[in-house]
Amino acid sequence: MKKKQNKNLTSLADHIEQQYGVRGTPERERFEEGFEAFKLGVMLQELRKGSGMTQQELAERCGTTKTYISRIENNASDIRLSTLMRIFRDGFNKHLKLSIETS
User: Fold this and answer.
1) How far apart are CA 73 and CA 39, in angstroms?
2) pTM of the entire structure?
């Protein structure tokens, strides 16, 4: 049996471009920055839960507050790089690696 093609479907990349413009435009760059912050929060939450820690336990390990950990996980807070590094170092005994993408 042959599948029907749905001509109304668009790829995620095309949808993002339609909604936020092409890379390099201010609106698209704001979207990309927000998405990276969202991903960071999700990664932190998954690592914390995978380690069997509560937000309170993680906060105590790295010298911050449960509220701050929650804000990072829920993408409601800008975070200092030094604080982020401390969370991974003291909270998880891991090192944070950053990379820069060039155009």
Assistant:
1) 9
2) 0.74
Tell me the domain boundaries of the chain: 12-92
Read off the tokens for 13: 């990349």
C-beta separation of 41 from 49 below 8 A: no
Concatenated DSSP letters for 20-53?
H-STTSHHHHHHHHHHHHHHHHHHHHHHHHHTT-
Query: Rounded to whole angstroms, how far apart are CA atoms 61 and 90?
Result: 6
Sequence-ordered list of residues with C-beta below 8 angstroms from that of 68, at least 6 positions apart, any chain: 59, 77
Q: What is the pLDDT of residues 37-60, one digit of tens each?
A: 888 899 999 999 999 999 999 999
Contact between 40 and 72 (Cβ < 8 Å): yes
- CATH superfamily entry for domain 12-92: lambda repressor-like DNA-binding domains (1.10.260.40)
